Amino acid sequence: MPVALTALPAMAQEAAISAAEAAPAVTVEVAYIFNTLLFLIGGFLVMWMAAGFAMLEAGLVRSKNVTTQLFKNISLFSIAGIMFWLVGYNLMYPADWTIGGWIGELFAPKSIEPVAGGDAADGYSAGSDFFFQLMFCATTASIVSGTLAERVRLWPFMIFTVVLTGVIYPIEASWEWGAGWLDQRGFSDFAGSTLVHAAGGFAALAGAIVLGPRLGKYRPDGRMQPMPGSNLALATLGTFILWLGWFGFNGASQLALGSVSDAADVSRIFVNTNAAASAGVIAAIVTTQLMFGKIDLTMVLNGALAGLVAITAEPLTPSIFASLLIGGVGGVIAVVVVPMLDRMRIDDVVGAIPVHLCAGIWGTLIVPATNADTSFAVQALGVGAIGFFVFGVSFLVWTVLKATMGIRVDQEAEITGLDVSEMGMEAYPDFVQAK
Length: 435
Prior knowledge:
Layout: H1 2-7, H2 10-22, H3 28-60, H4 66-92, H5 118-122, H6 126-147, H7 154-174, H8 181-184, H9 193-211, H10 232-251, H11 260-292, H12 297-311, H13 320-343, H14 352-365, H15 376-404, H16 411-416, H17 418-423
Helix pairs in contact: 3-4, 3-6, 3-10, 4-6, 4-7, 6-7, 6-9, 7-9, 7-15, 9-14, 9-15, 10-11, 10-12, 11-12, 11-13, 12-13, 12-14, 13-14
């Protein structure tokens, strides 16, 4: 299988390698500038994904909960911006480990002041690296927001976000990206199919189980009550914004643009990322038509995102054909997992668990099919370890919050809508909302 998936672009790869070898080397200063620029451009593209998540979620929740959802997205992004500086960065990228390979530096705020020889030796500025890595942390928290929509209280959600962005995400990400114990065993997750997306999905799953489904979502007779979103135009806009931002997410994860070969690799990552998203859309179109007799736009949008999540673990080594296969399977996953969750009475408002958790696991497990330097056993070990840690700690935090301050709005507030009960303002005040 690995040979079949990588054979098609062999001649093109050889030609690119030959061209790269023939190209003159750039100076250290020029490489520093281009590497820093890649981090900054990639960072603001990933930051733009925050707008994508906000629009997607605003479109997929009911009109009476839109303001609350928009608030959650801007608040979680801001919480991540502070917590990742205060605690997260040096916990994720430790100069010295508190527990070797497992837990990094505790309570060591990140400094971006230049250190003699430090920035030049790294090949990029400390500030650009911090900015880029921060965006991944915020993305992880965004995934949780959509799953728990329409019934979670705001303050417990923000407290959980503090823990997730300051402690949970940095610790599990350090195991691979911080040269921790998983990295030492050969685990590979190029841009975060598991470290970011599945991690956010595990945290969302834990929250959904502790929180419970929305009122009326599951009938006593076992049937599921559809609860359509308020604005599919916003949801579609959000998907396109996320698709655009993903080029920064995956492309800048090359972490270098200071050579011809790096530039070629970034371009290749862009192409494979786009191919996987396209395949996810087509696969979701076909799957919804076959399963439901009609095409479901919301699942098609999630098919695009699932394709993107799936290719994120390894967007460089696959051929275009392999990228289409990986993304296409992700699109199918985004559709077929939804009724499975409904049978288990797990209420995921925006479909984040199928997209980020399940497609993220798929993308991580399939990496060895195109990357000969990895193994299926180690990839499975990494997924299992990260899932056990993130789900376990998240479940504990949600349970403690539920027992101490409560995490769910009361029945009247849920029926009226969180915009009125939690925020005191409505996104669409000129329209009479059905109660």
